[in-house]
Amino acid sequence: MATPDIAFVTLRHRSARWWLVLLTAAAAVLPACGTSTVQMVVARPAVINARAYGGTVTIGAWIPAYADYAEVAGQLRQEIAERVLNSVAGSVRLMDYGGGLVVTGRVDEYSMNLRELVRTEPCHKPAPPPPPAAEGEAPAAKVRPQAMVNSTCTWRWYEWQARMAVEAKVTTASGEVLLWRPIVAQRQGKTYEGKDYVPAPPNAHAILQVLRQHVADQVAWLVAPRKERVDAVFYDCQEPAKAVCEAGVRQMAQSHFDEAVQAFTEAIGRLEAAKAAPAELAKAHWNRAIVFQYSGRFDEGWNDLQRAKQLDPKDAYDQQLVELQRERAIYTQLIEQGVAAPTAPAAPAGGKADPVPAAPSGPAPGQGAPAGPPVAEPVAPKG
Fold this sequence. Notes:
The protein has two domains: 46-114 and 157-224, Rossmann fold (3-Layer(aba) Sandwich); 228-360, Alpha Horseshoe (Serine Threonine Protein Phosphatase 5, Tetratricopeptide repeat), CATH 1.25.40. The strands form two sheets. Strands 1, 4, 5, 6, 7, 8 and 9 form a seven-stranded mixed beta sheet that branches. Strands 2, 3, 10 and 11 form a four-stranded antiparallel beta sheet that branches. It has seven helices and eleven strands. By secondary structure, the chain is α/β, with parallel strands linked by helices.
């Protein structure tokens, strides 16, 4: 039986070689100081490989700890089933009964605490208009509209704290417990402070619904791969490679990975011909490495990052080398879970790709999966 652990959720391409194309919409490119960011949706492997158990999953009973939670338990069960049904690449099949894996659980808490707070302080207010003159009396002198008088103001607002706690269990069809995991989602906040009026209270139904959806995401991820957003960061290039680097980022935003590689390769050539500073040339190698990373060409990405590190020894390049190792291990997990197909990465022009060193071994099944984006798609811009 797996050791229990707890997960907290605090709320506050056109690469046809092997890439799993999920969407082909354009990505949102977010400019920053010296960098450009392309938002990507990436695949994450499930905690437990359902393919090892026939690739089928059944969502069993979800029990409410209290009678008031019965409706919530039913809604949560349905939302978990929907997420498993729509798993990445259809790698897991949902069955009403008889699945190789069975997901059950209990809803322990589904609550929201609301407090109305009041604060009174001295303040200045516009002077009130004079009372109307009585019959036979001379009218009072008019007070200028901008005149202010000392008074007392009262501010009112709400503070709230919402929490949902469940216990999820994954078993085999024969009843063997593979994983037991408490999952807690929580959120807190406050409304605007209303001066001399009572603001509207927060929408408790909407807030708790968000918590329930996040819990459903976490439970479904135990047995089904999921999607997650990450940022692919590219350095801006100096002349004479500025235009081609910008073109490479645009190609990446459209999931044209091969064209992005060509653009950044041209940028490297231009910078070398211009005898650019080593730090500038390192940035171009970083950019190409990021494209290689998101298109599964890990060996070539490794070579580019090593070259960038030689040119400009920065901690960022060392960190990205570690990240690339992790992502390659995750890609292996996605292959095992039927999300990606195996491939032999192409060697870089002019030589053989140096192999990426073996990545550190990941956690045992049932103990969580490392993060990384071996299968990616750009995020379609809103509008």
